[in-house]
Amino acid sequence: MSARLAETEAALTALRTGAADAFVGMAGEVFYLGGSEQPYVTFFSAMNEGGVTLDSGGVVLHCNPRFTAMVGRPIEDLRCGTFLSCVADQDRPRVVELLESDETTAGEALLVTPSGTLPSRISLRTVDTGPLRFRCMVVTDLSERVRAEAELRIAAIAFESQEGMVVTDPQGVIIRVNRAFTKLTGYGDKEAIGRTPAMLSSGRHDEEFYRRMWAALKTKKYWQGEIWNRRKDGKIYAEWLTISAVCTPEGEVTHFVGAFSEITKNKEAEAEIHRLAYYDALTGLPNRRLLHDRIGQALAGSHRHGRYGALLFLDLDNFKILNDTLGHDAGDKMLVEATERIKANLRTGDTVARLGGDEFVLMLEDLSAEAHEAAVQTRQVGEKIREALAQPYGLGGRDFHCSASFGAVLFRGHEEVVETLLKCADLAMYEAKNAGRNTLRFFDPSMQVALEERSALEADLRSALEGRQLHLHYQPQVDGRGRVIGAEALLRWAHPERGMVLPGEIIPLAEETGLILPIGQWVLETACAQIAAWSENQDTCELKLAINVSARQFRQADFVARIRGALEKSGAAPSRLKIELTESLVIDNLAETITRMKELKALGVLFSMDDFGTGFSSLSSLKRLPLDQLKIDRAFVLDLATDLSDAAIVQTIVTMGKTLGLDVIAEGVETEAQLERLVALGCDSYQGFLFARPMALAAFEAFLGRQIPKTLTH
Predict the structure, then answer these.
(1) Do strands 309-316 and 404-411 pair parallel, antiparallel, or not at all (unpaired)?
(2) What is the rounded distance in angstroms from the CA atom of residue 243 to the CA atom of residue 224?
(3) What does pTM read for this prediction?
(4) Nearest CA to 104 among 83, 77, 84, 124?
(5) What residue spans in the chain does CATH classification 3.30.70.270 cover?
(6) Is 3.20.20.450 the CATH number for 462-633+685-707?
């Protein structure tokens, strides 16, 4: 055996047992330091890259400190183990191909580390010593390169984001743009590169704006803000722009990078939100919130200049009739037309606002410093608008006439309270309504007294519910043979100071304050309890009791459940309860009304249409309603004995009722002559002072045995 071969075999033995270190020289020779007590330091162990020596079977003979650090394992664990144990499973086939190759070769693979994997490049060279072959391996850590490539990919993706991106040189000349830039501006990359962003200038910003921008970029290397630019097609748009300077470690600017997104839609959305918050959606007029603000400004202005201003509260007369007959679409068209007429007749600088429904408020400013003259000026403006609103409206193929009532109040100075002024104008408007409508009334201090009395009455009414001051009185209803067949329950309020308060005062106040719901519930429960009590007596067990139900009460989502609950709780027979609904209530949302009425009819409850003849219900809608009775309004009974028109109307109602199989009752019967005429026209039942006024329960029950009018006994 040659000396070289012997030396090689000895080296292998020493390497395998860990007794010595060795390295492969550049010419392929193996150097071995026998018997050394110190590590043998060579360029192999001092390499910045991982170094591994393998035998022909891929067993690790030696590795340097750098490789052990890369894989996180001590040299003792690596020696005499296979190199493949250091390779991730998915990359082992690739490394096997490298190890089986006799050529100098290289490839990439993931090495296994305690914390995961390490990307690496493996370079292999075969060392042939004759009878033995070795593989010399250099392993390069690719972590930084992979990280850099990932960052480049991320940067590339970010550059092609939904935001427009533009890169310029230090002088502001564009050198690169992304696809979003082209989409947002209309300029392609070839059109933009070589030019400056000034090509997008909208002209909306002055030189000072751009001076401040460049000053920020110079000092802070950053600028961000809203800017208006112009697209290639000339359309101006708003964008949110961020500019960042790219600098060398020494602070020298090499590039500017701008990122922007269009915010025109955001600006439009902000404008829409503002419009919805401060303007009426239908007419585009200021709403209550904006009106309050403008009145506040007007008060301050009148204080400074010493001149009067005025508020006019305007309400369209009989607008509800239009809505009920022609529908809400026609009503909306009329409101828009009314708005245009008001605006056309206002002075420059005055304000008109819509509070809702058919209510408008006009605010006049800069009137005379003299109260009398200011009132004259206010009346002139109001009358001009009143006349304009009184002209016919072309709706639904025909002309519709609608007047307006105005309430006015003057103001001067900043000490006035906005809400108080509006209440005063509103109160004056109601005075105009009471005066016959289609007129203008100024607020008078005496109205304030009435307003305060009304507020006190409201407080008392709230207490009345709790203090058991509310009572039901009963007005008899008689049939054609003079028998009392039932009664209408009418609300009375026994006020401790004012005495007995009638429904004419109670109901409007309850409607305005929302107390109509608890009061209506009390009436329902009290009436049901009374029906149940009457059922125990043979003289009263057949009586039917009618109650009035307000529109607000009837439209409650749980109204049917409330009726059912009151009947079940009291034990009252449903067929003895009659609900009176007004004609206007019934035809408002007819489909919902019919559904609700049918649900109650299924329980056995009866229905009467109150004040029939005063509304605008058609025969086609009337026959769809599950009614039991029509109630002729007292207005047609009053002059029935002498007025042929009233007689014709009553005859029509009676005939209509008979045709539909409905009972017909007349209210407001006060004279024998009226009764005689009603009997002759075929009316079935009667109610009025001729028989009895509304009475307390004890008086009503005592009345049941009294004599009835002679007309009905013939």
Answers:
(1) antiparallel
(2) 6
(3) 0.46
(4) 124
(5) 279-443
(6) yes
